[in-house]
Amino acid sequence: xxxxxxxxxxxxxxxxxxxxxxxxxxxxxxxxxxxxxxxxxxxxxxxxxxxxxxxxxxxxxxxxxxxxxxxxxxxxxxxxxxxxxxxxxxxxxxxxxxxxxxxxxxxxxxxxxxxxxxxxxxxxxxxxxxxxxxxxxxxxxxxxxxxxxxxxxxxxxxxxxxxxxxxxxxxxxxxxxxxxxxxxxxxxxxxxxxxxxxxxxxxxxxxxxxxxxxxxxxxxxxxxxxxxxxxxxxxxxxxxxxxxxxxxxxxxxxxxxxxxxxxxxxxxxxxxxxxxxxxxxxxxxxxxxxxxxxxxxxxxxxxxxxxxxxxxxxxxxxxxxxxxxxxxxxxxxxxxxxxxxxxxxxxxxxxxxxxxxxxxxxxxxxxxxxxxxxxxxxxxxxxxxxxxxxxxxxxxxxxxxxxxxxxxxxxxxxxxxxxxxxxxxxxxxxxxxxxxx
Length: 437
What we know:
This protein is of the alpha+beta class and about 425 residues long. The protein is built from nine helices and 20 strands. The chain has helices spanning about 30-65, 95-100, 105-115, 120-135, 225-230, 330-335, 355, 375-380, 395-405, and strands at about 140-150, 155-170, 175-180, 190, 200-205, 210-220, 245-250, 260-275, 275-285, 295, 305, 320-325, 340-345, 345-350, 365-370, 385-390, 390-395, 410-420, 425-435, 435.
């Protein structure tokens, strides 16, 4: 059949509109350069903001979160001195001088011939003054703050002033040697330097037997100029000190920090019994103050001892008594690293050859036992002779000290002693729990 549909009945195709695609104009080199510079500046700005934010927020975060940056620390080492050698040997007299006349007569004759003047004296003391001024840059004031209450229950702060000597500068901190009384029962410790800078100090370690303490001061709180000025005072060799040597007192010999004094060594007592060892005691005619803190130096500016009142005896009340530094370097090294020194608790002496010939066994003879010490609590008595410690034979006090120093507080050490009986010495073995000084 023919198609009868009209033209309107046909389906109309959809009309298409003109579609356009917008194409960006290619950037010029100048626009590319501008965008690159803008991007770099933006990145730099964000970097600066991030750095400032980190620096500002880090101390706050460490304070409240208790997180500290871990860093490697180098152990503090203090070289030990050999008591059998001295730094300066006695000068030898020539054969001619010995044969002709005594050296004292030669010296007296030379002194009479030399025309000494006031300028010579000023030069001598000027040199001593230069040494003391240089060392005084390593002297600090330790403030011991204790909080107490008055009659009306109001908090009251009592502050004591003590002298301290900087003996080490390592691991971003200064280590200060000061009297144990400066930190005893202290609620806080402040350390003041010569330019007025005052910072918080922390107790590194104390030793009640020697009466000394080590306080740590972070160098981050000190200015660069101050750090360049403050120099650690070297620890000298006290075994080389001789009677008649000139010595300098620094710290607080006048009872005030940063005071000084001059004098001479009057006497040196050797082989003095101390707890767990032997020591030398230096007697001098200079004025000092043990409570405030006084350190003895040689003319080379090295610390050779610190003043104490412990070894004063009848007839030496007016003398300055100092503990020789060389006998305490092992203790100071452990204290500087925050470690307690091992504690046994005896005073002893080695059995001499003459004593051994009379029938007494070789070893360390116990002269005294400290009350409530590890040795006392274990049962060691006066008169016992220590012959073995930790499986090693003990003959001299040096053997005893070396073995004790190698031990650690809390370690149980087997110790063999010989105790005198009615007819013979009886062997007794103890298990000593090593303490801490």
